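seq as requested:
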Amino acid sequence: MASHPQVALTHEQVAALAGTSRETVTKVLRDLADRGLLRLGRGRITVLDPDRLRDEGG
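struct tokens:
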């Protein structure tokens, strides 16, 4: 079973790093999770498809 990269950050911490609101981060992360790129957990974001996520980010 392949290991997926994980980031141990809250939505609030991601928002502070990105210079945006927690609400915006939550919306964007949910969209990415709905498309199968991420899995969201309590204080943890698991990257399921790093290549597609990189492509989506430009």
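The first strand starts at residue 6 and ends at 7.
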